[in-house]
Amino acid sequence: AAMATTIGDNAVVIDYDDDFIRAGYAVPEREPGVLQPALVRPAGSGAGGETSRPIRDRRVEDWDQLEALLADVFYRQCAWVKGDEGACLITEPVFTSKADRERLTQMMFESFNVSGLYVAEQPVAALYAVGKVTGVSVDVGYSVTDVAPVVEGSLVSPAAQRCEAGHSLVTAELLARCGEEHRRLREHERDAVRDATAAVAPSRDDASGGASLKDETYTLPDGRKVSVPGAARRECVERGLFCPVSRAGLVDAAAASIAACPAEQRRAVVDAVGVCGAWAGRAEGLDARILADLEQQLPPSTKPFLASTPEYMPPGTARWAPWIGGAILSKVVFTHNQHVTKVEYQETGPSVAAKIKGRD
User: Please, where are the H alpha helices in 130-275?
Assistant: First the structure.
């Protein structure tokens, strides 16, 4: 048991989306120590060259690029030493294929020589971060939002939903309403404009018929100014998340996900609706708006409630919920030998990943 404890103490937790890889040693009471942009600049393209994203819609598209990013995370930022690597817990998005999970397992053991590996599901980890084992995780990502019910720590896979709604779409909708000159802003500048000016309407009625907000001018650090029309400030959130043109919004996905749960589980999961995401976790009023819209769409017998962050958790918990939940989980799984060891991997190969999932 002593060996198992030391493994858990130096575990690195990895949680990823299209925009960032969040990583760091498993200290549950704090935010991830490493935020690695999930962007790769091909060799020889220079500082101004085009970048590409190895992860799109929460699915790995370029494994070599991901490996290069993770090598930097492990060996430089987490200071692992080659030949003496620690254990790793990775959170995995819903809808990850068995083949992709095996490929990730193979990379962890063969490229990074990890001493132990555990793969946790993002929705389970996100709810764990707010002290829940049963609930609905609404994870608003970069380009997609995943809604997944969890009962007693197990994902209700058939009821999970993914919709095309995310914070990059909010940004795109905002800038589309701000005039031509802003098309050339770099991504972090566009995000800064969104963070300063986008606003969540308290209800759908307010969004369409409420008093309009005042125009804003945002000044970038170099002095350039971006003027944002008042109407665009709420409209970007409506179009990017709640009522996109010609497709379902995130509350539609959440209502469909809850409806797809067996009847006896519905009441239990709506008691803890956990809204999380790098932008969603700090967008003022977003969780309350999701709750209000959801309540209108659900039958009166299933009244939803938000899963609030416990007082002992850091204030940024909703932003980094899957990572923080992964850090909490890692203290349990490595201590109780629920992870895959190097020996098990050598005996079984990549298909050993099924051991962790317990349901393939």
Answer: 167-176, 187-197, 204-209, 230-237, 250-259, 263-270
**Cβ(228)–Cβ(239) under 8 Å?**
no
| Partners of residue 218 on adjacent β-strands | 226
The answer to whether residue 29 scores a pLDDT higher than 90 is no
Q: What is the pLDDT of residues 307-359, one digit of tens each?
A: 989 998 988 899 999 999 999 999 999 999 899 999 999 999 998 887 775 44
Rg of the chain over Cα atoms, rounded to whole angstroms, equals 21
Distance (Å, whole) CA 102 – CA 340: 12
102-135 pLDDT tens trace? 999 999 999 999 999 999 999 999 999 999 999 9
**Which tens digit of pLDDT belongs to each residue from 160-187?**
999 999 999 999 999 999 877 777 888 8
The percent of the chain in helix, strand and coil, each rounded to the nearest 5, is 40, 20, 40
Amino acid occupying residue 88: C
- Amino acid letter for position 133: V
Q: How far apart are the first and last CA of the chain?
A: 28
Instruction: Please say whether the beta carbons of 327 and 105 come within 8 A.
Output: no
Q: How many Å separate Cα 39 from the centre of its chain?
A: 16
- Output the six-digit token pair for 252: 């539609």
